[in-house]
Amino acid sequence: QVQLVESGGGVVQPGGSLRLSCAASGFTFTRYAMRWFRQVPGKEREVVATIFNTYMPTRYAHSVKGRFTISRDNAKNTVYLQMNSLKPEDTAVYYCSNGAGYWGQGTQVTVSS
Protein backbone atom coordinates (compact mmCIF):
# COMPACT_ATOMS: atom_id res chain seq x y z
CA GLN A 1 0.00 0.00 0.00
CA VAL A 2 1.03 3.60 -0.51
CA GLN A 3 2.92 5.10 2.41
CA LEU A 4 4.34 8.57 2.87
CA VAL A 5 6.26 9.12 6.09
CA GLU A 6 7.39 12.62 6.97
CA SER A 7 10.13 13.38 9.47
CA GLY A 8 12.48 16.13 10.52
CA GLY A 9 10.13 18.59 12.15
CA GLY A 10 10.81 20.25 15.47
CA VAL A 11 11.15 23.51 17.33
CA VAL A 12 13.56 26.09 15.96
CA GLN A 13 14.27 29.75 16.63
CA PRO A 14 13.49 32.40 14.00
CA GLY A 15 16.25 32.48 11.42
CA GLY A 16 17.03 28.82 11.95
CA SER A 17 16.88 25.88 9.56
CA LEU A 18 15.25 22.48 9.34
CA ARG A 19 15.33 19.72 6.76
CA LEU A 20 12.18 17.68 6.30
CA SER A 21 12.16 14.25 4.69
CA CYS A 22 9.34 12.23 3.19
CA ALA A 23 9.99 8.55 2.58
CA ALA A 24 7.66 7.07 -0.04
CA SER A 25 6.72 3.47 -0.75
CA GLY A 26 4.00 1.47 -2.45
CA PHE A 27 4.03 3.30 -5.77
CA THR A 28 6.44 4.07 -8.59
CA PHE A 29 8.07 7.15 -7.14
CA THR A 30 9.67 8.30 -10.38
CA ARG A 31 6.30 8.62 -12.10
CA TYR A 32 4.97 11.27 -9.74
CA ALA A 33 5.50 14.90 -9.02
CA MET A 34 5.83 15.38 -5.28
CA ARG A 35 4.61 18.26 -3.19
CA TRP A 36 5.03 19.64 0.28
CA PHE A 37 2.00 21.25 1.89
CA ARG A 38 1.47 22.88 5.25
CA GLN A 39 -1.54 23.53 7.41
CA VAL A 40 -2.27 25.56 10.51
CA PRO A 41 -5.40 25.09 12.62
CA GLY A 42 -8.41 26.83 11.13
CA LYS A 43 -6.84 27.32 7.72
CA GLU A 44 -6.82 25.32 4.52
CA ARG A 45 -3.84 23.22 3.60
CA GLU A 46 -1.57 25.18 1.26
CA VAL A 47 1.01 23.95 -1.21
CA VAL A 48 4.52 25.03 -0.31
CA ALA A 49 6.70 23.47 -2.99
CA THR A 50 6.47 21.12 -5.98
CA ILE A 51 9.12 19.00 -7.65
CA PHE A 52 8.29 17.25 -10.89
CA ASN A 53 9.31 13.85 -12.19
CA THR A 54 10.53 15.52 -15.36
CA TYR A 55 12.96 18.37 -16.03
CA MET A 56 10.31 20.99 -15.31
CA PRO A 57 11.52 23.56 -12.80
CA THR A 58 10.48 23.35 -9.19
CA ARG A 59 7.77 25.65 -7.92
CA TYR A 60 7.37 27.47 -4.65
CA ALA A 61 4.75 29.45 -2.83
CA HIS A 62 5.58 33.13 -2.85
CA SER A 63 5.89 33.14 0.92
CA VAL A 64 8.78 30.65 0.92
CA LYS A 65 10.56 31.40 -2.33
CA GLY A 66 14.26 31.98 -1.78
CA ARG A 67 14.17 30.36 1.66
CA PHE A 68 12.95 26.80 1.01
CA THR A 69 14.37 24.23 -1.40
CA ILE A 70 12.61 21.05 -2.48
CA SER A 71 14.63 18.13 -3.79
CA ARG A 72 14.21 14.42 -4.42
CA ASP A 73 16.39 11.33 -4.37
CA ASN A 74 14.79 8.81 -6.71
CA ALA A 75 17.19 6.09 -5.60
CA LYS A 76 15.88 6.45 -2.04
CA ASN A 77 12.24 7.22 -2.93
CA THR A 78 12.53 10.31 -0.76
CA VAL A 79 11.64 13.96 -1.15
CA TYR A 80 13.17 16.67 1.00
CA LEU A 81 12.35 20.20 2.02
CA GLN A 82 15.27 22.32 3.18
CA MET A 83 13.90 25.27 5.12
CA ASN A 84 16.19 28.19 5.89
CA SER A 85 15.62 31.60 7.45
CA LEU A 86 12.55 30.27 9.18
CA LYS A 87 9.91 32.69 10.41
CA PRO A 88 7.21 32.29 13.06
CA GLU A 89 4.62 32.28 10.28
CA ASP A 90 6.19 29.08 8.93
CA THR A 91 4.82 27.27 11.98
CA ALA A 92 2.52 24.52 10.73
CA VAL A 93 2.14 20.81 10.22
CA TYR A 94 3.97 19.90 7.03
CA TYR A 95 2.74 17.09 4.77
CA CYS A 96 4.00 15.51 1.60
CA SER A 97 1.79 14.17 -1.16
CA ASN A 98 2.13 12.40 -4.47
CA GLY A 99 -0.93 14.15 -5.86
CA ALA A 100 -2.90 10.91 -6.10
CA GLY A 101 -4.88 11.37 -2.93
CA TYR A 102 -2.25 10.04 -0.56
CA TRP A 103 -0.85 11.98 2.37
CA GLY A 104 1.57 11.31 5.14
CA GLN A 105 0.81 11.84 8.80
CA GLY A 106 2.57 15.17 8.85
CA THR A 107 5.44 16.60 10.88
CA GLN A 108 5.10 19.61 13.15
CA VAL A 109 7.35 22.61 12.58
CA THR A 110 7.34 25.29 15.26
CA VAL A 111 9.33 28.49 14.84
CA SER A 112 9.49 30.36 18.10
CA SER A 113 11.94 32.22 20.28
Ordered list of secondary-structure elements with their pairings:
Blueprint: E1 3-7, E2 10-12, E3 18-25, E4 34-39, E5 46-51, E6 59-60, E7 68-73, E8 78-83, E9 92-97, E10 107-111
Please give a structural write-up.
With 113 residues, the protein is mostly beta strands. 0% of the residues lie in helices and 47% in strands. It contains no helices and 10 strands. It has a 6-stranded mixed beta sheet with strand order 2-10-9-4-5-6, with no helix packed on it. A 4-stranded antiparallel beta sheet has the order 1-3-8-7, with no helix packed on it. β7 and β8 form a beta hairpin. It is globular. The model has no long low-confidence stretch (mean pLDDT 96).
Gap from first CA to last CA: 40 Å
Helix content: under 10%
Low-confidence stretches: none
Radius of gyration: 13 Å
Mean pLDDT metric: 96
Strand content: over 45%
- Order the strands across the largest sheet as they lie in space: 2-10-9-4-5-6
Instruction: Write the H/E string, N to C.
Output: EEEEEEEEEE
Number of helices: 0
- Which class do the helix and strand fractions yield? mainly beta
For the sheet with most strands, the description reads: 6 strands, mixed
Question: What global shape is seen?
Answer: globular
The counted number of beta strands is: 10
